[in-house]
Amino acid sequence: MNRRSFLATAAGTVAIATAGCTSLFEASTPDDLENVDPDQQLPTPTLGDGTVTVEGYEDMGCPYCQEFQADVFPVLEDEYIATDEIEYRHHDFVVMASDASLAMANAARAVQNETRTDDDPNGRFFDYKAAVMAADPESADEIAALAAEVDVDPAVVTDALEGDTYYPTLAANWDHGEENGVEGTPTVIVDGETVDEPTDPDAVTTAIDEAR
Protein backbone atom coordinates (compact mmCIF):
# COMPACT_ATOMS: atom_id res chain seq x y z
CA MET A 1 0.00 0.00 0.00
CA ASN A 2 1.57 3.33 -0.99
CA ARG A 3 1.19 6.56 0.94
CA ARG A 4 -1.54 7.93 -1.30
CA SER A 5 -3.78 4.89 -0.95
CA PHE A 6 -3.01 4.73 2.77
CA LEU A 7 -4.08 8.34 3.26
CA ALA A 8 -7.19 7.85 1.16
CA THR A 9 -8.24 4.94 3.35
CA ALA A 10 -7.28 6.72 6.55
CA ALA A 11 -9.17 9.91 5.71
CA GLY A 12 -12.50 8.45 6.71
CA THR A 13 -11.40 6.93 10.00
CA VAL A 14 -10.64 9.17 12.98
CA ALA A 15 -8.94 6.38 14.91
CA ILE A 16 -6.42 5.86 12.15
CA ALA A 17 -5.45 9.51 12.21
CA THR A 18 -4.27 9.24 15.78
CA ALA A 19 -2.93 5.72 16.03
CA GLY A 20 -0.13 5.67 13.47
CA CYS A 21 0.93 3.28 10.75
CA THR A 22 -0.33 -0.02 12.05
CA SER A 23 -3.95 1.00 12.50
CA LEU A 24 -5.05 -0.92 9.43
CA PHE A 25 -3.23 -4.13 10.24
CA GLU A 26 -1.36 -5.93 12.99
CA ALA A 27 2.33 -5.05 13.07
CA SER A 28 4.34 -8.01 11.89
CA THR A 29 7.74 -8.63 10.40
CA PRO A 30 7.69 -7.77 6.67
CA ASP A 31 7.62 -10.88 4.50
CA ASP A 32 10.96 -10.00 2.92
CA LEU A 33 12.64 -9.99 6.34
CA GLU A 34 11.07 -13.20 7.63
CA ASN A 35 14.00 -15.47 6.77
CA VAL A 36 16.76 -12.90 7.22
CA ASP A 37 19.24 -13.45 10.05
CA PRO A 38 19.33 -10.26 12.13
CA ASP A 39 22.71 -8.54 12.15
CA GLN A 40 23.40 -4.98 13.24
CA GLN A 41 25.80 -4.31 10.35
CA LEU A 42 26.07 -0.59 11.02
CA PRO A 43 26.16 1.67 14.08
CA THR A 44 22.80 2.92 15.32
CA PRO A 45 22.31 6.41 13.84
CA THR A 46 22.70 8.68 16.85
CA LEU A 47 22.70 12.43 17.41
CA GLY A 48 23.58 14.38 20.53
CA ASP A 49 25.35 13.40 23.70
CA GLY A 50 22.85 14.19 26.42
CA THR A 51 21.86 12.28 29.52
CA VAL A 52 18.26 11.76 28.34
CA THR A 53 17.87 9.01 25.74
CA VAL A 54 15.23 9.47 23.04
CA GLU A 55 14.61 6.54 20.72
CA GLY A 56 12.60 6.96 17.53
CA TYR A 57 11.15 3.96 15.71
CA GLU A 58 10.07 4.85 12.19
CA ASP A 59 8.91 3.51 8.84
CA MET A 60 10.11 6.06 6.28
CA GLY A 61 7.04 5.45 4.13
CA CYS A 62 4.62 6.02 7.00
CA PRO A 63 2.72 9.33 6.64
CA TYR A 64 2.71 9.82 10.42
CA CYS A 65 6.48 9.26 10.54
CA GLN A 66 6.78 11.85 7.79
CA GLU A 67 4.72 14.17 9.97
CA PHE A 68 7.09 13.47 12.87
CA GLN A 69 10.06 14.18 10.61
CA ALA A 70 8.58 17.49 9.44
CA ASP A 71 7.08 18.80 12.69
CA VAL A 72 8.79 17.18 15.67
CA PHE A 73 12.33 16.26 14.66
CA PRO A 74 13.37 19.84 13.79
CA VAL A 75 12.35 20.91 17.31
CA LEU A 76 14.43 18.12 18.80
CA GLU A 77 17.38 19.11 16.61
CA ASP A 78 17.25 22.79 17.49
CA GLU A 79 16.33 22.65 21.17
CA TYR A 80 17.76 19.38 22.46
CA ILE A 81 20.28 17.78 20.08
CA ALA A 82 22.28 20.88 19.20
CA THR A 83 22.65 21.64 22.91
CA ASP A 84 23.44 18.03 23.88
CA GLU A 85 20.39 17.81 26.10
CA ILE A 86 19.46 14.41 24.65
CA GLU A 87 20.94 11.46 22.82
CA TYR A 88 18.64 10.68 19.91
CA ARG A 89 18.76 7.18 18.42
CA HIS A 90 17.03 6.18 15.19
CA HIS A 91 15.67 2.67 14.70
CA ASP A 92 13.99 1.38 11.55
CA PHE A 93 10.69 -0.35 12.25
CA VAL A 94 9.37 -1.22 8.81
CA VAL A 95 5.64 -1.95 8.85
CA MET A 96 5.24 -1.58 5.07
CA ALA A 97 3.07 1.52 5.38
CA SER A 98 4.21 2.15 1.80
CA ASP A 99 5.20 -0.28 -0.92
CA ALA A 100 8.58 1.49 -0.85
CA SER A 101 9.10 1.39 2.94
CA LEU A 102 11.67 -1.41 2.96
CA ALA A 103 13.56 0.02 0.00
CA MET A 104 13.77 3.46 1.62
CA ALA A 105 15.21 2.03 4.83
CA ASN A 106 17.67 -0.16 2.92
CA ALA A 107 18.74 2.82 0.83
CA ALA A 108 19.31 5.03 3.86
CA ARG A 109 21.64 2.43 5.35
CA ALA A 110 23.53 2.26 2.06
CA VAL A 111 24.07 6.01 2.27
CA GLN A 112 25.17 5.69 5.88
CA ASN A 113 27.69 3.00 5.06
CA GLU A 114 29.05 4.86 2.05
CA THR A 115 29.60 8.13 3.94
CA ARG A 116 30.39 7.14 7.52
CA THR A 117 33.79 7.57 9.11
CA ASP A 118 35.26 6.58 12.46
CA ASP A 119 34.57 10.11 13.70
CA ASP A 120 31.10 10.29 12.18
CA PRO A 121 29.41 6.87 12.11
CA ASN A 122 26.14 8.44 10.89
CA GLY A 123 27.63 9.74 7.69
CA ARG A 124 24.86 11.45 5.73
CA PHE A 125 22.19 9.08 6.98
CA PHE A 126 20.01 11.76 8.57
CA ASP A 127 20.34 14.08 5.55
CA TYR A 128 19.24 11.32 3.18
CA LYS A 129 16.48 10.21 5.53
CA ALA A 130 15.07 13.75 5.54
CA ALA A 131 15.25 13.94 1.76
CA VAL A 132 13.61 10.59 1.12
CA MET A 133 10.81 11.20 3.63
CA ALA A 134 10.06 14.62 2.15
CA ALA A 135 9.99 13.25 -1.39
CA ASP A 136 8.06 10.05 -0.56
CA PRO A 137 9.37 8.20 -3.64
CA GLU A 138 7.58 5.17 -5.04
CA SER A 139 10.13 3.57 -7.34
CA ALA A 140 13.65 2.22 -6.92
CA ASP A 141 14.93 4.73 -9.49
CA GLU A 142 13.45 7.63 -7.52
CA ILE A 143 14.90 6.32 -4.26
CA ALA A 144 18.35 5.96 -5.83
CA ALA A 145 18.23 9.38 -7.51
CA LEU A 146 17.71 11.07 -4.13
CA ALA A 147 21.19 9.95 -3.08
CA ALA A 148 22.61 12.64 -5.35
CA GLU A 149 21.02 15.25 -3.08
CA VAL A 150 23.48 14.22 -0.36
CA ASP A 151 26.43 13.84 -2.75
CA VAL A 152 26.27 10.06 -2.96
CA ASP A 153 26.42 8.18 -6.25
CA PRO A 154 22.91 6.78 -6.91
CA ALA A 155 24.59 3.54 -7.98
CA VAL A 156 25.48 2.92 -4.32
CA VAL A 157 21.78 2.83 -3.48
CA THR A 158 20.87 0.84 -6.58
CA ASP A 159 23.39 -1.85 -5.66
CA ALA A 160 21.96 -2.09 -2.12
CA LEU A 161 18.40 -2.30 -3.42
CA GLU A 162 19.26 -5.04 -5.88
CA GLY A 163 21.22 -7.00 -3.28
CA ASP A 164 18.96 -6.44 -0.25
CA THR A 165 22.24 -5.51 1.39
CA TYR A 166 21.04 -4.08 4.68
CA TYR A 167 18.10 -6.37 5.32
CA PRO A 168 19.99 -7.97 8.27
CA THR A 169 20.24 -4.53 9.91
CA LEU A 170 16.53 -3.88 9.32
CA ALA A 171 15.67 -7.29 10.76
CA ALA A 172 17.81 -6.56 13.81
CA ASN A 173 16.07 -3.20 14.22
CA TRP A 174 12.69 -4.91 14.00
CA ASP A 175 13.67 -7.35 16.75
CA HIS A 176 14.94 -4.49 18.90
CA GLY A 177 11.65 -2.65 18.53
CA GLU A 178 9.59 -5.73 19.27
CA GLU A 179 11.65 -6.42 22.39
CA ASN A 180 10.90 -2.87 23.55
CA GLY A 181 7.16 -3.13 23.02
CA VAL A 182 6.95 -1.16 19.79
CA GLU A 183 3.68 -1.88 17.97
CA GLY A 184 3.41 0.94 15.45
CA THR A 185 5.13 3.90 13.89
CA PRO A 186 6.19 6.40 14.82
CA THR A 187 7.02 5.33 18.36
CA VAL A 188 9.08 7.65 20.55
CA ILE A 189 10.51 6.36 23.80
CA VAL A 190 12.06 8.80 26.27
CA ASP A 191 14.22 7.18 28.93
CA GLY A 192 12.15 4.00 28.68
CA GLU A 193 8.73 5.71 28.65
CA THR A 194 6.64 5.70 25.47
CA VAL A 195 5.23 9.06 24.41
CA ASP A 196 1.47 8.79 23.82
CA GLU A 197 1.33 11.40 21.04
CA PRO A 198 4.62 11.17 19.14
CA THR A 199 3.55 13.53 16.35
CA ASP A 200 2.79 16.32 18.85
CA PRO A 201 5.92 18.41 19.47
CA ASP A 202 4.62 19.54 22.86
CA ALA A 203 4.01 15.96 24.02
CA VAL A 204 7.53 14.89 23.06
CA THR A 205 9.26 17.93 24.52
CA THR A 206 7.26 17.64 27.74
CA ALA A 207 8.36 14.02 28.11
CA ILE A 208 11.97 15.08 27.61
CA ASP A 209 11.74 17.97 30.07
CA GLU A 210 10.20 15.71 32.70
CA ALA A 211 13.02 13.18 32.23
CA ARG A 212 15.81 15.74 32.69
UniProtKB/TrEMBL annotation:
<dbReference type="InterPro" id="IPR012336">
    <property type="entry name" value="Thioredoxin-like_fold"/>
</dbReference>
<dbReference type="Pfam" id="PF13462">
    <property type="entry name" value="Thioredoxin_4"/>
</dbReference>
<dbReference type="InterPro" id="IPR036249">
    <property type="entry name" value="Thioredoxin-like_sf"/>
</dbReference>
<keyword id="KW-0813">Transport</keyword>
<feature type="region of interest" description="Disordered">
    <location>
        <begin position="191"/>
        <end position="212"/>
    </location>
</feature>
<feature type="domain" description="Thioredoxin-like fold">
    <location>
        <begin position="51"/>
        <end position="210"/>
    </location>
</feature>
<keyword id="KW-0249">Electron transport</keyword>
<comment type="similarity">
    <text>Belongs to the glutaredoxin family.</text>
</comment>
<protein>
    <submittedName>
        <fullName>Disulfide bond formation protein DsbA</fullName>
    </submittedName>
</protein>
